[in-house]
Amino acid sequence: MIAEDPHLELRLAGSDRDLRAAQRLRYRIFVEELGGNGDLVDHSARLERDEFDAHCDHLLLIDRRRSAEALDDVVGVYRLMPGDRAERLGRFYCDTEYDLDPLRRSGRRLLELGRSCVHEEYRGGSAVFLLWSGLADYVLSHGTELLFGVASFHGIDTEALAEPLACLHHNHLAPAELRVRVRPECGVRMDLIPADRIDRRAAMLAMPPLIKAYLRLGGFVGEGAWIDRAFNTTDVCLVMDTARMSARHRELYTRRQVAVE
């Protein structure tokens, strides 16, 4: 897919070089910018990678003006794990943080979203819109019914994050039949503030743009947050049921008019 900007291209990774370029961008964002780490992170090559990469599709936003040889041309990434591949592998990435049994019991077609990031020079412009556009095409072509994945707050101080976490819990909790629950090993409660004491405006201002985008599409969150010390983040699990979208949300999504503020 060619974007309106003739220098930008949106497509799935088709080679090992493409994957390494995606992992280079992820290293730049998750390791260098946010202070994350992991068992398979290659610091010498500056690649953020893990054991799931080989089993996923990788949606790439490419700026052709940048050096492909230097792995510098990928400026946006989305990692996509269809349910049938996770079944063959035996697990999703999110299984390490959340009990996904409610989603599996639904019998519906699943897609896990992960490792979403955009180069700092492209934030606030059309890059996120273009990635959502490609994601919408992917979802529609695969007949996906339930999308889910973890989205992160930077930092692990839940007291500092109490207002947005409580806002998510009290206002956007998934229905019982789709409510994944955080695993106890590193899980924390999100209802840290009573509903009547939340400053909703302040809570939304503290909410990462990706989470707000999912909420605008009618997304929900699972119960509890996960403290990811390796990545220095507090994670929530977002679930989006395409059948539950309002007519307005469905039109926004299928027309790919989602904008992230």
Care to describe what's here?
- The chain has 261 residues and is of the alpha+beta class.
- It has a domain at 79-254: 3-Layer(aba) Sandwich (Aminopeptidase), CATH 3.40.630.
- The protein is 30% helix and 23% strand.
- The protein is built from eight helices and eleven strands.
- The strands form two sheets. Strands 1, 2, 3, 5, 6, 8, 9, 10 and 11 form a nine-stranded mixed beta sheet that branches.
- α4 (127-142) links the parallel β5 and β6 (146-154).
- The longest helix is centred in the N-terminal third of the chain and has 18 residues, at 16-33.
- It is globular, with a radius of gyration of 18 Å.
**What order do the helices and strands follow?**
EHEEHEHEHEHEEHHEEEH
- What average pLDDT do the residues reach? 91
Which CATH-level-2 architecture of the domain at 79-254? 3-Layer(aba) Sandwich
Q: By helix and strand content, what is the structural category?
A: alpha+beta
CATH topology of the domain at 79-254: Aminopeptidase
Estimate the helix proportion, in percent. Answer: 25-40%
Largest sheet: 9 strands, mixed
